[in-house]
Amino acid sequence: MANPDALPLYLCLAGPTASGKTAAALAIAQEHDCEIVSVDSALVYRGMDIGTAKPSATELALVPHHLIDIRDPLHAYSAAEFVRDAKGLIADIAGRGRLPLLVGGTMLYFKALFDGLDDMPAADPAVRAVLEQEAADKGWPAMHAELALVDPVTAQRLAPADSQRIQRALEVYRVSGLPLSHFHAAKDATKLIATQVYSTRASGLISLEPLDRSWLHGRIAQRFDTMLEQGFVDEVRALRARGDLNPDLPSMRCVGYRQAWEALDAHEASGATGPLPTAALRELGIIATRQLAKRQVTWLRSMPQRHIVDADQPHALQAVLGIARQLIGSHG
């Protein structure tokens, strides 16, 4: 008997930044009756259009899009929220007789949808503030030593200077009384169940992965140059002028935005007048985007169910369409 919790057929299209996901998604949508669900942690934010390479008004008009411009940059959007929203949208879109097409490069979101989420405690600002003060007093190596006493499994895999992960592990322990490794073990135990429940997705991931890294680097540089020409610095300046945002927010930590914010800080601190020189920003932004792309490819390689398309080959779009046809046809 079919599992009542199983999701209907949906396709996923993933790839590193600038690998051609938008064009491939629109090609699939032209051939099939699709609605696109964005799998991008930056596209959720309103007012962040240029630096996120948000689909144009024309592209948005060609096919219905979801999970774009749903959150103010002041408020974070979590993987758990994505899974909840994506599951609801998949069911709704399929209920309208259309194909849900999940497209993006936030691999954490894909992995959370594919493998399920654990019941790890939510962030606790009060506990986190205490930990930050303790770290300021004692240093992160000492915090790492404390973690080793309560959660040796997690401590063993973290470097003593990995402040973000050490803080999270200690926060989980102090909030729940259980080590972070306990929650990871529980997640592994339920992973097989999640795979069975959402079996339709296991064969439905198309991955755009260029063979030639220099091809992707060239596209990243071209994209960043285009963003600068379109007024990216002014977009970040407008976000800063709001007065309620800061560079530690998840929205402002997005690649490009962080570098632009820091460049504007430095420009103002220097007392310089006139427009911001963009040469240094361009270099830093391109480097950061390359690093992001490398991480995205690493995530993808951990997903053995994916169907790889060489994004830099002349017939990449035809290959994507061919795989999409096969996947849809196999589910009859």
What's the Cα radius of gyration?
A: 21 Å
Give the structural class.
Answer: alpha/beta
Looking at the structure, what is the overall shape?
Answer: globular
**Count, helices:** 15
How would you state the average pLDDT, rounded?
Answer: 90
Binned, the helix content reads: 55-70%
Low-confidence stretches: 192-202
Order of helices and strands: EHEHEHEHHHHHHHEHHHHEH
Largest sheet: 6 strands, parallel
- The fraction of residues assigned to DSSP E strands is 5-15%
**Secondary structure tally: strands:** 6
Lateral strand order in the biggest sheet: 3-2-4-1-5-6
Distance between the termini: 18 Å
Give an overview in words.
The chain has about 325 residues and is α/β, with parallel strands linked by helices. It is built from 15 helices and six strands. The protein has a six-stranded parallel beta sheet, with helices on both faces. Strand 2, helix 2 and strand 3 form a beta-alpha-beta unit. The longest helix has 23 residues. The relative contact order is 0.17.
Layout of SSEs?
Layout: E1 11-14, H1 21-31, E2 34-39, H2 57-62, E3 65-66, H3 79-95, E4 99-104, H4 107-115, H5 125-138, H6 140-150, H7 152-157, H8 163-176, H9 180-197, H10 199-202, E5 205-208, H11 213-230, H12 232-241, H13 257-269, H14 279-301, E6 307-309, H15 316-330
Helix pairs in contact: 1-15, 3-4, 5-6, 5-8, 6-8, 11-14, 12-13
